[in-house]
From TrEMBL:
The keyword Signal applies. Keywords: Signal. Residues 41-170 form the Thioredoxin domain. This is Thioredoxin. The keyword Signal applies. It comes from Pedobacter duraquae. Residues 1-18 form the signal peptide. It holds the Pfam family Thioredoxin.
Length: 170
């Protein structure tokens, strides 16, 4: 009986700490609905304000195939955290580019963490407090838990070239 009670308590504590995926809130700083916290690609693609731009930008982006060829073996073992705003113009441009690159190389979704923030660039429950986010989107490339580099707001060259430069330390 004691083991059963312990198991039930553990289950409730896990559920209490669990975060709602693809959560939507009314953001007072933007005076509109936004997505917040951990999200999925499917979730942001169903969010009307983001979907409109994604559907227009994704098909037209043509990543550089030579850069992708060099990037692919390096990216297979890299984790990428994307912090974005569904309300943010730069996120609406760069995130579709990012997913076009990821799709072209067949990088698994498990290698990507997608976090949406409100208009004050905050998420709930301290989710991004240690990430030092000042602008969005921010693409953080890491390996074995160590940050290798980040692309903030807009790439210097192109998203794929900037990722390659980070992973080859250029």
């Amino acid at each position: 009986m004691k083991k059963l009670i312990t198991a039930i308590c553990l289950l409730f504590s896990l559920q209490a700490g669990a975060q709602e995926i693809n959560k939507k809130i009314q953001d007072p700083s933007r005076n509109k609905e936004v997505m917040i916290n951990t999200c999925t690609r499917a979730g942001i693609m169903e969010f009307p304000e983001f979907k409109t731009m994604y559907d227009a930008i994704y098909p037209d982006y043509k990543p550089d195939s030579i850069t992708l060829e060099k990037l692919h073996p390096l990216l297979k073992t890299t984790h990428i955290t994307v912090v974005m705003g569904t309300w943010c113009g730069d996120s609406k441009l760069q995130v579709p580019h990012f997913y076009k690159i990821i799709d072209a190389m067949a990088i698994p979704e498990k290698n990507i963490t997608l976090i949406c923030v409100d208009g004050n660039k905050k998420a709930e429950n301290g989710l991004i407090d240690k990430l030092n986010i000042e602008r969005v989107p921010t693409f953080i490339l890491s390996k074995d838990g160590k940050e290798l580099g980040r692309i903030v707001e807009s790439p210097r060259k192109s998203l794929e070239q900037d990722m390659l430069d980070i992973l080859t330390k250029k």
